[in-house]
Amino acid sequence: MAFKVNCGKQIAVTLLGWGVALWVFFPIFWMFLTGFKSEVQAVSTPPQLFFKPTLSSYAEVFERANYWHFTINTVLVSVIATGVALALAVPAAYSMAFMPSKRTRSTLLWMLSTRMLPSVGVLVPIYLLARNAHLLDTVLGLAIVDMLTNLPIVIWMLFTFFREVPAPILEAGRMDGASRWQEMTMVLLPLALPGIASTALLSLILCWNEAFWSLNLTSSNAAPLTAFIASFSSPEGLFFGKLSAASTLAVAPILVFGWFSQKQLVRGLTFGAVK
Amino acid sequence: MATLELKNLRKTYLTEEIIKGVSLSIEDREFVVFVGPSGCGKSTLLRMIAGLEDISNGDLLIDGQRVNDIEPGHRGLAMVFQSYALYPHMNVYKNMEFGLKLAGMPEAERREKITAVAKTLQLETYLHHKPGQLSGGQRQRVAIGRAIVRNPKVFLFDEPLSNLDAALRGQMRVELASLHRKLGATTIYVTHDQVEAMTMADKIVVLQKGVVEQVGSPLELYHHPRNMFVAKFIGSPPMNFLPATLIGREHSSSIIEFASGSSMHVPVYSSAVAEGSKVTVGIRPEHIEVVEAGEGSGKVEVVERLGALTLLHIRLANGQLIVVQTDGSDTSEIDSRVGLHLPSEHCHIFAEDGLAFEALNRHPLAA
Ligand SMILES: Nc1ncnc2c1ncn2[C@@H]1O[C@H](COP(=O)(O)OP(=O)(O)OP(=O)(O)O)[C@@H](O)[C@H]1O
Ligand SMILES: [Mg+2]
């Protein structure tokens, strides 16, 4: 009896899992298909699932914009923002995880609360700061803003991963004569590597997909892929074929990267749970 | 090689004082054991010596030099943790090498040292295993090996054997003792295992609530506990305590009387306490004799036969339950009535504040 109930529950959970996965995946799948349709097919009703694929949208996208320029900007912004965020967050999370003070808890919550603020609320001050620092439309400027927006999440994630590392192991390092720096780099980092990797991956993805600041702080020189997509949603009317082709091109690299590192990501995200 | 001096050490967390002024001298080559109930501050005190906790107040001297502000790695100490705390990402060899490498020891010398220590601890075949692939006992050996290779002035152990099963614990205890004899390094060892404390220590420090209750050799604590806390804490099963009244003195012996009316002469000085005051008589289970008719009597409630010896739980007339240890061939039955004799030379007397009356004669092994 118990077996049957269990079995039924398992089937339900499996179906639910598939349902959610398809639900999430469908828009990406549809975008991918639409990229290979002509503009007429793209907007036809009823929507067509089977059609004769064409590369015309892609051809036009490549003709109209320099895809590689945007890609390089995105890669640079994502990598710089993630690298700097990690460099700042590792020591911060280390001190919060292993030398907590009375205020550690509230500091963490406060940092997270800054993420709840709508970005547009600080658009004007940030814009003016960037302008005065001559960082408008520069890769560095966008990287700094992306880094700062992601820093709270990066610190939080690292903090939770570091907390899984037993303190006596670090203390053993200190007894062995390691300085704080050596303790962090030679003992803590190797142990928390899966967690650090998934944190880095998450930060990369967030930077890659960041659109609000990209659109507001860059125009041409430092415009990343999100601006590339936006340039195909013109006010004269939407061209869904080209928009889909551009979007596919924009998300393809991070999708492929994410696919290859998903094992690492899952391991990192469930670090504490499975152990 | 190394002496330690603790001068009125104090530790305060937030507002709570955990270590309340501990002073202690540790001689070169001495094996000192900290014991005490859970939460009394043994680990905290050890970690203060190690440098893993700040010292809120007082001085810590190693070889006469104040080390309060010296980093743990530079105090010349090595510590073995209860959880072993091996580096999980390094194999056994690298675990032992880590400290030597940081100290800048040349490769050849490192190899030589590690090989020698691995041999002493029978770890040679495991040098390339990761800690996760080792059994608890082997991990413990690696942790000890990691401490030994650094050739420290002082070894610190925090309940190193408590995660091992009973048989292995017994074996490791003997190994550690012989290792200490061989290396002759000053050692501080935290435990709450009676047997470890009694067998390994040159000197036991009994702590309670951050205060040192007594410092002495194992047999000194056993035969001459300074107060009721130490009397109860050292020895297993613990000492029995019976209420009585001090009724007089004779040739510097004290005469006490139990509520039952029987009285006895006990060879302890009682000059500090007025006649007629309430006292507590303490006597260990192994010192009470079961006889046909003695000063007291009671009914046997529980009989525990451990093979070599027997523990009788006896209900006295006043309702108190005491434990008596007899030999393994004892034939006492549950519900039988037995007479009890308390040899006066084994009786301890404690004043109302818990302090023991000084014995007329010191025990020969506890001079
Ligand atoms: N970081 C800390 N912050 C606040 N209080 C602490 C901290 N560490 C220890 N304590 C307190 O200090 C007291 C002594 O702790 P300690 O670990 O030294 O006890 P112990 O004698 O080693 O006990 P056990 O035998 O259980 O290991 C405890 O009451 C504990 O709650
Ligand atoms: Mg402890």
TrEMBL record, chain A:
Compartments reported by the entry: Cell membrane
GO cellular component, one term: plasma membrane
4Fe-4S in keyword set: no
Biological process, per Gene Ontology: transmembrane transport
Pfam families, sorted: BPD_transp_1
InterPro entries, A to Z: BP-dep_ABC_trans_perm, MetI-like, MetI-like_sf
Membrane spanning stretches: 12-33, 75-96, 108-128, 140-162, 183-206, 239-260
Xref: PROSITE patterns: ABC_TM1
The UniProt record lists the keyword DNA-binding: no
Chain ranges of the ABC transmembrane type-1 domain: 71-261
Keywords, ordered alphabetically: Cell membrane, Membrane, Transmembrane, Transmembrane helix, Transport
Membrane topology type: Multi-pass membrane protein
Domain of life from the UniProt record: Bacteria
Family note: Belongs to the binding-protein-dependent transport system permease family.
PANTHER family: INNER MEMBRANE ABC TRANSPORTER PERMEASE PROTEIN YCJP (PTHR32243:SF18), MALTOSE TRANSPORT SYSTEM PERMEASE-RELATED (PTHR32243)
Name recorded for this polypeptide: Mannitol ABC transporter permease
Taxonomic source organism: Gluconobacter wancherniae NBRC 103581
Upper classification of the organism: Bacteria, Pseudomonadati, Pseudomonadota, Alphaproteobacteria, Acetobacterales
UniProtKB/TrEMBL annotation, chain B:
ABC transporter domain ranges (all copies): 4-234
Entry keyword ATP-binding: yes
Alphabetical list of Pfam families matching this protein: ABC_tran (PF00005), TOBE_2 (PF08402)
Gene Ontology molecular-function annotations: ABC-type maltose transporter activity; ATP binding; ATP hydrolysis activity
Keyword vocabulary terms for this entry: ATP-binding, Nucleotide-binding, Transport
Gene Ontology cellular component list: ATP-binding cassette (ABC) transporter complex, substrate-binding subunit-containing; maltose transport complex
Family listed: Belongs to the ABC transporter superfamily.
Name of the featured protein: Sugar ABC transporter ATP-binding protein
